[in-house]
Amino acid sequence: MNAGAAPPLALVAELTHRCPLHCVYCSNPLQMSPRDAELPPEIWMRVFREAAALGVLQTDFTGGEPLARPDLAELIRAARDAGLYVSLITSGLPLEEKRLEELVRAGLDHLQLSFQGAREESANEFSGARAHAQKLRVLKWLRGQRIGLTLNFVLHRRNLDQLEEMIALGEASGAGRIEFAHVQYYGWAFANRERLLPTREQLDRSLAVLKEAEARLLGKIRLVHVVPDYYAKYPKACMGGWGRKILLVTPSGDALPCHAAQLLPVMRFENVRDRNLREIWESSEAFRKFRGEEWMPEPCRSCERRAQDFGGCRCQAFLLTGEAAATDPVCSLSPQRPRVDAIVAAANAAPAAACTTTDWLYRPNPPSNSA
Amino acid sequence: MTPEQHRKPRLAPGCRMNDKSQQPRVLLMPEKALRLNGPSLEIVERCDGKHTVQQIIVQLQKLYSKGDPQKVEDDILGYLALLHEQRALDFE
Ligand code: SF4
Ligand code: SF4
To answer: Using a 6 Å cutoff on CB, does residue A91 contact ligand 1?
Structure first.
């Protein structure tokens, strides 16, 4: 399935790696795109048209912080005009009510506001910025706007015990959807992993709380829950399968099958400045590399779950085993699962409350030029 | 939950159909898209906050006059309830 590969569902547009926050679990790569390498609006506009022509239905504007781009409203309008459904994934700053209205007028369909927790002090600690109070202001402004709203809470060892407060914050916000996403261990999160991985006890309690909330809120709020896969028996279907659902474009124009893919060795990524999106999707080496089942090793190759999880995450396989094509080591059938077990055992050696370090590795800002 | 007959379903904030000129027609919502064809398209086009559930049923029973009217009604109610659970519909 290559030329003629089914089109992606979504274009993830990383508009910039600049961000006023410094989250300790940021999924941006350790090597970020400098400001002077960012794509100009004309190229993004062409990319939106090419995406729509390829059959893409939705685009997620993300980053970094997309609000750092002064031309954001213009880009929203261009993506809408191309026929795409536009989501903005944002930390909520820097933003004022007037600019929010401008973005909605430009055609924004849906805004996803990310939170670092329900309590101001610790939320600000995890983001390395005084951001929490501003997010609450943005929620207030959003009440007057008729667009979709998702609240996103990133969960980990140090805030999982605030879950009820996060649900209450979400319920009061008017959001139609709340996402509880456990940290996934790439990028900066991998570097801070020991401080972020929850205990089994924390996790079990949180699952019970979420189950109750989901039943209670049915028809009012859609709850979405992403589990920490180190605790799972089988891996997640990363990105819905390599080169199957998602096409991501970095601030400087590299087209990736997933946001962490640049950490994989010896892989060449095409740039949207040089090639049409359809060609990149259908026939570039990077997108073909792990598409389908040809590349799979045992035990995936003969496993009946292979069409469900596609062998898991390539980046996780590489980070934990040194082999990009290995079975995702979180899979209980993987011969490398003991590596994950060791990490999980270390996380459970002490109770969660015992960990109070503020000694984080914060995500810095990208350099301003490529030199 | 069975939708009440006098209520007026309306697409929730953040949910809309793609443009008439685009094929296939889909209902777009946060992180999700539902393909619409035949009856589902006819139903969603009427979820505009103006038609009552009852009016939608009567209109579709006419449109699908070869079908069993009770079955048409049940299918519509089931589909509206499903959209509501996915937070794609409000009832006004
Ligand atoms: S630092 Fe935080 S807000 Fe900024 S891009 Fe990373 S995760 Fe998002
Ligand atoms: S062996 Fe491979 S295909 Fe089977 S469950 Fe594990 S990761 Fe998925």
So the answer is: yes
CB contact under 8 A, A57 and B14: no
Chain A, nearest residue to B91 by Cα: A219
Q: How far is B60 from chain A (nearest CA, A)?
A: 25
Q: Specify the DSSP class assigned to residue A13.
A: E
Query: Ligand 1: which residue has its CA nearest to atom 6?
Result: A26
- How much distance in Å is there from the Cα of A308 to the middle of ligand 2? 9
Pocket lining: A129 vs ligand 1, CB cutoff 6 Å: no
Domain that holds residue B56: 9-91
Per-residue pLDDT 10s for chain A (371 aa) are: 444 578 999 999 999 999 888 888 888 887 888 889 999 999 999 999 999 999 999 999 999 999 999 999 999 999 999 999 999 999 999 999 999 999 999 999 999 999 999 998 888 888 888 889 999 999 999 998 999 999 999 999 999 999 999 999 999 999 999 999 999 888 788 888 888 899 999 999 999 999 999 999 998 999 999 888 889 999 988 888 999 999 999 999 999 999 888 888 868 899 999 999 999 999 999 999 999 898 999 999 999 999 999 999 998 899 899 999 999 999 999 999 999 999 889 888 877 776 666 677 788 787 777 75
- Residue A300 contacts by C-beta under 8 Å, 6 or more apart in sequence? A293, A306, A311, A327
CB contact (8 A) between residue B30 and residue A221: no
In a domain, B56, yes or no: yes
Asked whether residue B4 is assigned to any structural domain, the reply reads no
Using alpha carbons only, what angle is made at residue A311 by residues A254 and A237, rounded to the nearest 5 degrees? 70
Residue showing tokens 């209205």: A101
Residue B2 lies in a domain: no
Q: Domain containing B29 — which CATH number?
A: 1.10.10.1150
Give helix A120-127 / helix A132-142 axis angle, nearest 10°: 110
Number of domains in chain B: 1
Q: pTM, whole model, 2 decimals?
A: 0.93
C-alpha–C-alpha distance, residues A199 and A337, integer Å: 18
Angle CA A180–A184–A186, to nearest 5 = 150
- DSSP result, A61-103: EESS-GGG-TTHHHHHHHHHHTT-EEEEEE---S--HHHHHHH
Structure tokens belonging to residue A348: 């459970």
Distance CA A291, CA A286 (A): 9
In a domain, B1, yes or no: no
Q: Provide the 10 A C-beta neighbour count for residue A219.
A: 13
- Contact, A24 vs A363, CB < 8 A? yes
Instruction: Tell me what ipTM this predicted complex has.
Output: 0.94
